[in-house]
Amino acid sequence: MKPMSFLSRLLLVAATFLLLATSVAPxxxxxxxxxxxxxxxxxxxxxxxxxxxATGDTIVMISGPSMGNTPQAIPARLxxxxxxxxxxxxxxxxxxxxxxxxxxxxxxxxxxxxRIAMAVxxxxxxxxxxxxxxxxxxxxxxxxxxxxxxxxxxxxxxELFPRLGIxxxxxxxxxxxxxxxxxxxxxxxxxxxxxxxxxxxxPVPGIQIVGLLPAEVQRTTTFSGGxxxxxxxxxxxxxxxxxxxxPTAAAAVxxxxxxxxxxxxxxxxxxxxxAELAPSxxxxxxxxxxxxxxxxxxxxxxSGKATGVPVDLGRELARRLGVPxxxxxxxxxxxxxxxxxxxxxxxTFVPVDAERATKLAFGPIYNVADATxxxxxxxxxxxxxxxxxxxxxxAAVANTTTMRxxxxxxxxxxxxxxxxxxxxxxxxxxGQIDAFANLRDQLLPLSARLPGxxxxxGAFQQTKTAIAVxxxxxxxxxxxxxxxxxxxxxxxxxHSLDDHGLQDTKI
Length: 507
Hints:
D-Maltodextrin-Binding Protein, domain 2; nine-stranded mixed sheet; six-stranded mixed sheet; 20 helices; 22 strands; 39% helix; globular
């Protein structure tokens, strides 16, 4: 008999919970210890009496941020041996605990989506944040700014403010707040404006919610629950997670300022997508393998195990679908594109171009990078014009977006395609070709491996990498697109990039 996926098991537990809710509470009631971050706390506080009435089990809340360096942070609590049955926290931070063995693999349940809001002290003038320009002006005009030391504050300080080009101006007047609601700091008058998840600001007295961040700069965070390894009350922990993903809990989640994710909604959407996205019962992820690294390429370690950002994305997508994952390896994105019509794979992550769009259906873009040239040691070319002359030997990976861009930009020489990037690297090191056309963020570390080589300034095109599925799978594309959007806004993609040493790569 085929084993049930976690989603199937969750549906069964949810049904069991609903039966319990109509019966008398059992005599062997438990105290379920829940380590919980602030975003979901208000909802759980409202739902705890309902859960107790249905099951007899009491919820004991242990508060702490999903990340950060304070002793109260959930990862720190678990690391020093504090016991718990369930954690409810930011989804990508929960994934890190799974990797560390502190949360049971496969037990994650997505419960709600949360967005960042801004608040001022009650009675203070309400600034305009209706557009990105107005939001930027408000930040620059504010006398002081506070944000949390968890997901929302990390996003603001490390990604959004630098992206808006105002990080240096804001730094002297900004404070990251540990172990205290940001709203409380604003209510005291210690900060003129404050940012945190809407669900964490709503319960705080003495403040006024200005509104959510503009959509173009918003970061949606997924709050998820998981079972702690060695949980003392395993059955009660499973019942709690099932309860929190039911329509019964959805009203309290919505009231707290979050968008509920119910198991019924997930099951319906996932079933439709699974039929198209994993028709064989396994998700087959097409990967281009090279030593170049970056957001697009994958690699194999000494044991043959696949590593890289696309590997992480494929594994997480399979987890959400409730199916196993298989990786299908190719030398380049051109081979992946040609294999789409043969039914060899189900999802991939490749650069977008018009020719490729006749064979693949593209979802959201997750990386934009400049394409340029790495020239060999001893070559005198300092710019594109000096490279574009007869006799120059220019190489690119065959049948790729970068090769087509180089062919369009170079009028007086020929671009030769090779099947693998590693072959080109070898030829460049031996001086048998003059230049390698590829993405700047991949060529810069490569130049350090090839003494005397140089990356030319400028760019002959911008290459955009996106999630893609074979043509004719509309449900698969919709699900994959929603997944990648959430991976971008919820922090999973950022976390994966950082894990692979790509801290400077922008989403």
